[in-house]
Specification:
The complex is a heterodimer of chains A (243) and B (616). In chain A, 68% of the residues lie in helices and 0% in strands. Chain A has helices at 2-38, 55-84, 107-113, 115-142, 146-180, 209-237. The N and C termini of chain A lie far apart (76 Å). In chain B, the strands form six sheets. In chain B, strands 3, 4, 6, 7 and 8 form a five-stranded antiparallel sheet that branches. A four-stranded antiparallel sheet of chain B has the order 12-11-14-15, with no helix packed on it. Chain B has a three-stranded antiparallel sheet with strand order 1-2-5, with no helix packed on it. The termini of chain B are far apart. The chains are: A mainly alpha (243), B alpha+beta (616). Chain A: Its main location: secreted.
Chain lengths: 243, 616
């Protein structure tokens, strides 16, 4: 008698939990659908039915992403250094492949550059790093130092994605600024693809860990530049935001 | 002479070299660059630590190379930043450029190069502390809070977005040591809640670029929080409410346990015990032993009674069969504590309630008088039993006074033979015996009264051997009784019930037959209530049972004994005559109560059970 009752109880319990799970699932589905219905998609040109973010929002988003990009690359670089080069020997004679991209080296130069050129610099930098980062990610995931690279290859992938998003984001911003009349139309992306160096700059063959290190070092710096330039751009374009 | 000079010179030179070796001059030790810092990402400073200078004046020089350039520059400014430092101004500072810096120490004997250091200015930023820290007390719905505000260090250009700072502040009370940290992010204002009333607070703030070093803490700002009443008031309200709650709980507990406390503080008076009453003996069935045990020496006191002229029964001899006693004991044990019997409202119960009566006649009257629930239950029981018993109760032969109502016993299954009962009844129960004479004139109180008197008088000498005496008498008399009292409705016309009327001062028990017409006959509805019975009023100091009559109206019994003058049932009998005339009689009995006294559950004394009753 006792056993059968316990069996009954268990069955009943299971049924009960199944019902609960089903109910919860239905709830979630409903919520998600309802939320989808409620929120409007974001678009930059103000087409019907979408919510147009303001320039401030766009800048905010872009700056957040650049900040994230820099911190990930910084972490990756310091991990790399600890793992492979404990002697803290930063690159000596080697150059970054973006060395010939003229970038302002101090505040006055950056302010003197103007919005258009600053935007151009940013875009150029971002475009310069698209390919090398994906190669870095590929190379890292294939590397025999599995214990280190499993963790860091994900980060490299993340960096690569962010850079890609940032490119799009900055483009949207420039379009919007042009629309607003803040940016003159004379600015174009006049750095042809051919001028953009690739990772071939670093090595002819496959990238090894030394190349990884150099790449990371260079990218850390360039991401910081991008972040800084974006902030300067935002604060000169929208001073009322209280930089 | 030349030789002497030469020797002196040689000696001097030796001395000189020896002396020179004690203070050796060395080339300088390697200096070390300790740190480089930039306060606003526009200039920076490097400091070094000099090594030993080797005893000679040593100069230090800082040289640097920029990234991807072979040109070596020297430090432009050694003085702005103090001793052993190099200050790079805006023109010389390039961000995102790798500097290779080293320091050279040089003295007369040589040079020493420090280890080179590579720095990128963007990663060595340590700003100045925030400035213009302001703290103010503000109020939010009666609760104060601190509003802290500050400004970034004036050198850091956050306005153009060149540098982005995040802030952190810390607060503590003046008397405490631990700081409370708050991260404020990029905002330049912060609110602090949960303040102590009347406290003095210290506030400090610092800042950091998103990748860089924390600044030093700013100068401390002091603030006094004023005393605010609401908090304290609410605290007192809380305290008061809590204590009131505790008080209520305590009161409730006390109330719930009053009885127990009463028992503790004022212990109850123990119930009466009949001396010599031995339950075991009784159960063993040896009645002789039992009754002998009951006999108390020097008893009764030979004190003359005031009411000697009254007919009194000298004493009762209770000779009961075991059944009766058991029953009575059971009844007694059945929870009738003495004190409760006091409270047990015997009041209102008439003589009908006495177990010496046939009860069904008096049922109505009785029920009205029932005030005690327990008593009523038992009464009903008794009545039921009575009914039962009535059937089997034997007709006492004429002259037998059935003073013992088998009726009243609630435990009829003792298997007692009614006949046996009777036989035992006849025996000592013969207080009735005294009634004997009395009962010769049944139905008349006068006769009763006379009988009493006779009995009393006659028995005065007889208390030595009460039993036998009584017996003999009773036998004779009882037979008379049976005749007389045969009112209609009686089941056994030959039986006669006797009740204790009263007890006089000399501890004599006055008996009367319970044949008050009104008590027994249906057609006497005007029977005053609560008169024909003896009710235990209390126990006096000498372990004597005080009975009282509960009565109203015309029945007046003289309050013979002081003990019986109580709150209720003050009966005064003016004369025996009056007693006799009345259908009901006032009954007082004072008799010693010994262990196992047959108190009925409703507090009535079964006269049949009496033993060692006082004699007149």
């Amino acid at each position: 008698m006792g056993k059968s009752s316990s069996h009954h109880f268990v069955l009943h319990c299971k049924k009960g939990t199944m019902k609960k799970v089903l109910f919860a699932a239905l709830c979630l589905v409903y919520l998600e659908l309802s939320m989808r219905v409620v929120s409007a998609p974001i678009c930059s040109y103000g087409q019907a039915g979408c919510h147009v973010p303001s320039l401030a929002d766009l800048f905010e988003r872009v700056i957040q992403q650049s900040s994230r990009m820099h911190s990930v690359s910084s972490d990756l670089h310091s991990e790399f250094e600890q793992y492979f080069f404990p002697s803290k020997n930063i690159m000596g004679k080697r150059k970054c492949h973006t060395y010939d991209i003229l970038t302002p080296q101090d505040k006055e130069n950056a302010q003197r550059l103007g919005r258009e050129q600053l935007t151009e610099v940013i875009v150029t930098l971002l475009r310069a790093w698209g390919e090398p980062l994906s190669e870095l990610h590929q190379s890292m995931s294939q590397d025999q130092h599995q214990d280190f690279n499993i963790y860091s290859s994900n980060k490299a992938l993340e960096i690569s994605d962010i850079v890609h998003e940032l490119k799009d984001g900055v483009k949207i911003i420039t379009d919007k600024m042009r629309l607003m009349g803040v940016l003159s139309n004379t600015v174009g992306y006049n750095s042809p693809e051919s001028l953009v160096p690739s990772s071939a700059f670093y090595t002819q063959g496959d990238l090894d860990s030394m190349d990884h290190h150099d790449l990371l070092y260079c990218f850390r710096r360039d991401s910081n530049k991008v972040k800084n330039y974006l902030r300067v751009l935002k604060c000169t374009t929208l001073p009322e935001l209280g930089c | 002479m030349m030789k002497n000079v030469m020797e002196v010179l040689f000696l001097l030179m030796l001395l000189f070299t020896v002396h020179a070796k004690e203070k050796s001059y060395n080339p300088p030790e390697k200096p070390a660059l300790t740190r480089c810092r930039s306060p606003e990402k526009e200039t920076f400073t490097c400091w070094w630590e000099p090594g030993s200078d080797g005893g000679l004046p040593t100069t230090y020089a800082l040289y640097y190379r920029k990234e991807n350039s072979e040109t070596v520059y020297e430090c432009p400014d050694y003085h702005t930043a103090g001793e052993n430092s190099c200050f790079f101004n805006k023109n010389d500072t390039s961000i995102w450029v790798n500097y290779n810096i080293s320091v050279v120490a040089a003295n007369a004997l040589g040079r020493a190069f420090s280890d080179p250091v590579d720095i990128d200015v963007v990663y060595i930023v340590k700003p100045n502390p925030p400035e213009k820290l302001k703290v103010a007390v503000m109020e939010d719905k009666g609760w104060p809070f601190l509003r802290v505000s500050w400004e970034p260090p004036h050198k850091a250009d956050t306005r153009s977005g060149w540098i982005t700072l995040i802030y952190e502040l810390r607060v503590r009370l003046e008397e405490e040591d631990d700081w409370e940290m708050h991260l404020a992010g990029q905002q330049k204002m912060f609110n602090i809640f949960s303040l102590r009333s009347g406290g003095k607070y210290l506030v400090e703030v610092r800042c950091k670029p998103d990748h860089g070093f924390w600044s030093e803490w700013s100068s401390t700002s002091y603030i006094n929080v004023p005393d605010y009443f609401p908090r304290e008031k609410s605290m007192w309200i809380l305290v008061a409410a809590f204590s009131a709650f505790i008080f209520l709980i305590l009161t409730w507990l006390l109330h719930m346990n009053t009885h127990r406390l009463k028992h503790c503080i004022l212990p109850p008076v123990p119930g009466p015990k009949i001396k010599g009453f031995d339950k075991q003996l009784l159960k063993n069935g040896k009645s002789d032993e039992f009754f002998s045990a009951l006999v108390v020496p020097n008893f009764p006191e030979a004190s003359p009674s005031k009411y000697e002229d009254m007919l009194v029964v000298e004493f009762f001899e209770v000779k009961e069969q075991e059944l009766m006693l058991e029953e009575s004991n059971d009844l007694l044990d059945g929870g009738l504590k003495y004190e409760s019997s006091r409270s047990d409202s015997d009041s209102g119960r008439g003589s009908c309630d006495s177990h010496t009566l046939l009860l069904d006649k008096c049922r109505e009257a009785k029920e009205e008088r029932q005030t005690n629930r327990d008593g009523s239950l038992i009464e009903k029981q008794i009545r039921q039993k009575d009914r039962k018993e009535e059937a089997i109760s034997p007709d006492i032969s004429s002259g037998r006074v059935k003073t013992w109502p088998s009726l009243y016993s609630p435990l009829p299954q003792y298997g007692s033979n009614p006949l046996d009962k009777q036989s035992s009844l006849e025996m000592a129960k013969q207080h009735s015996l005294s009634i004997s004479s009395f009962l010769t004139q049944p139905g008349t109180k006068d006769a009763l009264g006379l009988s009493y008197m006779d009995f009393c008088l006659s028995n005065k000498q007889n208390h030595v051997h009460p039993q036998t005496q009584v017996q003999t008498r009773s036998n004779v008399n009882i037979s008379n009784i049976g005749h007389k009292h045969a009112p209609a409705g009686l089941h056994s016309p030959t039986t006669q019930y006797v009740e204790v009327q009263r007890v006089n001062k000399e501890d004599m028990v006055l008996l009367q037959p319970v044949l008050s017409r009104c008590g027994l006959i249906e057609d006497c509805p005007h029977l005053p209530k609560g008169e024909d019975y003896s009710k235990v009023k209390g126990v006096d100091y000498d372990n004597r049972l005080l009975l009282q009559r509960e009565g109203t109206g015309e029945d007046m019994c003289s309050g013979m004994d002081q003990e019986t003058n109580g709150e209720r049932g003050n009966c005064y009998t003016t004369s025996t005559v009056s007693i006799m005339q009345k259908p009901t009689a006032c009954i007082y009995t004072v008799m010693p109560i010994q262990e196992g006294m047959a108190l009925t559950l409703n507090g009535y004394v079964d006269t049949a059970n009496m033993g060692n009753l006082p004699s007149c």
